Amino acid sequence: MRLFGRKKRQLVRLLVVEDEPLVAFDTEHVLTDAEFEVVATVDRVSKAVALIEGDSAIDLVLADVRLADGSGLDVARAARNRDIPVLFLTGTLPPEADGLAEGVLMKPYGPRDLLGAIAAVEEKRTGKAPSRLPSGFRLFAGA
């Protein structure tokens, strides 16, 4: 269904995993302004994995790779086991990340790039080639 030319989103309920408070706040603000539902914003691997493995309905995980209590790669592995796509938002990307996520948006990034990266992941998940890739964003072939 389209309302005023906008198609219905498939990725609506998002989990934000970020241990830098200002980045987490800004990300949540951008997402809620763009009418996404932020299921939770957490700063620990253990909290993220508990939400993923619990009853929370999550459409997409946005995760930093370096977290205070471990690695976002562990969050991505848990999400992958539940067939939940992951978008890494990070400044440092280890080589093994590309088999665990849909893509990466390198820090620092702006609001338009974040929303564009989510849109590109959604297009990829629906079988379409993304029309435009934001600056600092890369889709992975493997995930």
Describe this structure in words.
The protein has 143 residues and is an alpha/beta fold. The protein has a single domain (2-139), classed as Rossmann fold (3-Layer(aba) Sandwich), CATH 3.40.50. Helices cover 33% and strands 24% of the residues. The chain has helices at residues 21-33, 45-53, 72-81, 111-125, and strands at 2-3, 6-7, 13-17, 37-42, 60-63, 66-67, 70-71, 86-90, 103-106, 137-139. A six-stranded mixed beta sheet has the order 4-3-5-8-9-10, with helices on both faces. Helix 2 (45-53) runs parallel beside helix 3. The longest helix has 15 residues, at 111-125. The N and C termini lie far apart (28 Å). The relative contact order is 0.15. The model has no long low-confidence stretch (mean pLDDT 92). One of its GO terms (cellular component) is cytosol. Keywords: DNA-binding, Phosphoprotein, Two-component regulatory system. This is DNA-binding response OmpR family regulator. Residues 13-122 form the Response regulatory domain.
